[in-house]
Amino acid sequence: MKYLKECIFYRDCPVFRDGYERHMTPGMTERQVEKMSSILEQLYAGDLAPAERNIQGNEEYDRLCRESVQEIREFSKKLDEQSRKAFEQLLEHYLELTYIEKSQTFCDGFRLGAGIMCEVFQGRPAADGWQ
């Protein structure tokens, strides 16, 4: 954590800034925030659960969620009991697949980000003329 805070990207990078600002509450000093547990400590203690974070502040997502829930309710009402159970099973399988896809995407993104940071700290030249 010490090296992360010294990194120029710590407060300028949206990913780090999001994590930093989420733990800042009104009236807290940076020193108080620094005393809080590190991301690894939070992860170990079970206080950090990326899979449980909700999407917030995205009006299109919120609207589509409301519409989807309403459409599912309306469609379910039209089904007989056997068809409703089959539909619920179909939805359950879809949610399981979505969870697996989100988990894989998270892992892939984390690996990519870690790889980028490794290149940055190793001082390797950037591709295509990026400095």
TrEMBL record:
A matching Pfam family: DUF6809
Top-level taxon of the source organism: Bacteria
Annotated protein name in UniProt: Uncharacterized protein
Organism: Enterocloster alcoholdehydrogenati
